[in-house]
Each structure stands twice: as C-alpha cells, then as structure tokens.
Amino acid sequence: MSSSQLWEEQRPRLRNFIRRRVADPGEVEDILQDVFFEFLESYRLMKPIEQAGAWLFRVARNRIIDGFRKKRPDLLQDLGGASEDGEMLSIEEMLPSPDAGPEAAYARSVLVEELEAALEELPVEQREVFIAHEIEGRSFKELAAETGVGINTLLSRKRYAVLHLRGRLQSVYEEFMK
Fold this sequence. Notes:
This protein is mainly alpha-helical and 178 residues long. It has helices at 3-19, 25-44, 52-71, 91-94, 102-121, 124-135, 140-147, 151-177. The chain is 72% helix and 0% strand. The longest helix has 27 residues, at 151-177. The radius of gyration is 21 Å and the shape is elongated.
C-alpha cells in the first residue's frame, strides 16, 4: 500500500481520534497536518515504519499532549501536595478538572491510568496505607488503632509507597512537561 493510500485510509479515523480529545477545530486540523508532515518526512528520509496506522495514532497522541503542555505548562509543576496557603491538597485536587475540556480530560485519564497501574505494583501493605491516608484521608493514628500496626511502621510503609510512586510516575510527569 502506498503512503498516499495509507494516509487517505487513516485520515478520517485519525481526525475523529483527535477531535474527541481537542475542542478547537482549528487545532484539530493543525495536529492532523503535523501528523501528515511527520508521516511524509519519515517516508522522505526512508525511515521504515512498521504498523503505520498505529504509528500515526501515536504521533497524533504525542501532538495532543504537546498542545496540552503548551496551554497548561504549570499543570504538573504544582503537584507538590500543598496549595498556595500551605493546606494539603488531595490527589483529586491535583489532577486536571474533567470539566476543563477534552485535553484536560485526556490528560486526567492518562494520569489516573498510570497512577492506578503504579498503585497495583506496590506491596499490599504499602498500597493499603497509601490509599487509606492519601485517598481516603484517614489519619495514621486511626489506621494504627484499626490495624494494630504501629504509627512508625505505617509511616515507613507510606514513605516506601511514595518513593515507588514518585519514581514510577516521573516519566509520565516528564512526558507532560517536555
């Protein structure tokens, strides 16, 4: 199949893929044009593309993320866990709002998926402490009374969970902040 045939076959699906994630029709066309340019450039440079359809969607996804980064450069920089007045923020408050448009909803879904996958990798004890404290908002004192495990042990488990999650999610953070 020639490159032009492949493009004509994939373009409507690609446009719909982008349209579901980007609200501005002009931006949809810009992203589609960027993907097409990159596609032509790879053929011009004789770079072999295996599974060209999947490659096109991956490039489109990357362009959507790039656009999101340009519009919201401070989104993930503020994930330090505290608001401007020093009050602790919940994970929910740190994620992009699902009502902030398709790009924010897409970023949120990527972040939530990655967080869920990273949580699943944790040992059960660490995961339970992290979820109970960070997501459910329960105190260490309450958890210690309920489980019979010492507060220092719970703190240690949460610390290891945070270290794992920070390391595991660093690549996602960097992907959005490039």
